[in-house]
Amino acid sequence: MTGFLQQAITGLMIGSLYALVAASIVLVYKATHVVSLAHGQLVAFGALFFWLFLGGLGLPFWMGLIPAFFLTALIGLLIERLTLRPLIGQPLIAAFLMTFAIFIALEGVFVLYLKGQTRALPTFLPEGNLDISGLSIPINQLISFFVAILLFAAVSLIFKYTKLGLGMRATAEDHRLAQSTGITVRNIFSYIWILSAVVAAIAGIATANVMDIYYMLPYIGINGLIVAICGGLDSLLGALVVGLLLGVVENVGAAYLDPIVGGGVKDVVGYVVLLLVLLIKPYGLFGLVRIERI
Amino acid sequence: MLTLNNIEVIYSDVILVLKGVSLSVEEGNIVALLGANGAGKSTALKAMSGLLKTELGEVTDGSIEFEGTKIDRKSPEEIVKMGIVQVMEGRPLFEQLTVEENIKVGAYSRNDTDTIKRDMEDVYQYFPILARMRHRVSGYLSGGERQMLVMGRGLMARPKLMLLDEPSLGLSPALVKEIFRIIELINKEQNTSILVVEQNAFVALSISDHAYVMENGRIVLDGPSSKLKENEDIKEFYLGLSQVGKRKSYKDVKHYKRRKRWLS
Ligand SMILES: Nc1ncnc2c1ncn2[C@@H]1O[C@H](COP(=O)(O)OP(=O)(O)OP(=O)(O)O)[C@@H](O)[C@H]1O
Ligand SMILES: [Mg+2]
After folding, report:
1. What homologous superfamily does CATH list for B2-230?
2. ipTM for this model
3. For ligand 1, mutation pick of B8, B11, B17, B238 (most atoms within 8 Å of CB)
């Protein structure tokens, strides 16, 4: 039993990372209805920038964090300005394909910079383990877990209760109608890409906290996308719940099934979950049901 | 306060829809814009509110002035800030938002939090039904409730001029009367000038000070509403009355159109 719980808790910690990546994707969808494939790169570059300032330049935590946010947000803003804004009003598939192209382009830069090597972040969170009745949780992961939860709460509150959040929800529903009420839709697009890039950077830094930065890091975007879709694409709560769930299922599944099938369970579980969820609930677990009146 | 100077509107660079339309709205007035389906009424409103650009439409000739400023190149959100709000045809809502959130979005261009609260109470005074449904998701409202909500949302921008596109569409006669009573009330109490596009010529002429009749992208008739109400052509073709109180046949309608084209 303790073994199972230990695996589940470790899964929760990993799941919070998936949830964060998914959240950054959900944010963009919520305000613009664009499904972004580019976010895996934002996550990776967020981590890389942080490493540059901390590991590369040896700056203290905050002095690394702020510029890392800033630079990742800048990439997000540039993606929006240069590639997506011209596509406003075009079919959404055009924007979707564009984000794929951006993923490929940034992938090139990322791989070129790493040259097959890995980068490890210096420790920036307290070390040690929290031991409760036989379970052991690394304190740095626990901190990152709670940061993720707090971030979810904060972003949800922004969407639900602030004027900007209202503007974003309105814009997501109908660009033209939003404009007719005085919302500057272009600005909403910029703000959401900045916000979502910062969330992606946090996800990247939290991920680099538990594993080295290497060429596969951007592909955590795929996990994020799976989580976002299963959660309903426009639901932050969905992203959180499904993210945590996927982390747990992956980890527990790997612990119990890997010895039987000989490994690799982690890599498949995500797709199996996606398939099952979409078979049962096509709009995702927490997706908005489309309002249809006759 | 608002003047259209011989404007020409083209969609997608080829479809000529407005062929030289001039009209004006005086401050404090209610003005009616009548005309058959496809005459270009909505297009004229969209030209004023800047929404034309979102549909690949463009004002290619003439000018639109609001309080002395040319507005035909301005964006919809700038025009809302200047004081013109269009309540679009078909009563589009933010369906996933609640009634109250829809109303709040209407005030997006403003920053005066206290007065926004007060204006919201005003809206609920005009439309008490909305107050009772404030936390309901708006996508499920009935046609009449939707009409009230889109007008309430429009009011929240504190417009100097409100453009209403077919507020009576598909509503029961009693509700039409009620909506137009409130339009008059808003005009008086909020000092909001109103330009209303209508198929229901009778109510529109009853509450308006001045009216224009549009056909095929041109204004073919205009004058004080009380005068137009007595005009024989209007009586026949918009109020459905002929001299002897019967509907005219289609043949006569065509004849009328031919005559009109000749005149314009
Ligand atoms: N976006 C567009 N692109 C091309 N043509 C358009 C567009 N919008 C309107 N039209 C055309 O312009 C003409 C006038 O349309 P408009 O909507 O202004 O008419 P209307 O007077 O409001 O009619 P109704 O009473 O039916 O609402 C119509 O022939 C219509 O097909
Ligand atoms: Mg129309």
Report:
1. P-loop containing nucleotide triphosphate hydrolases (3.40.50.300)
2. 0.87
3. B17
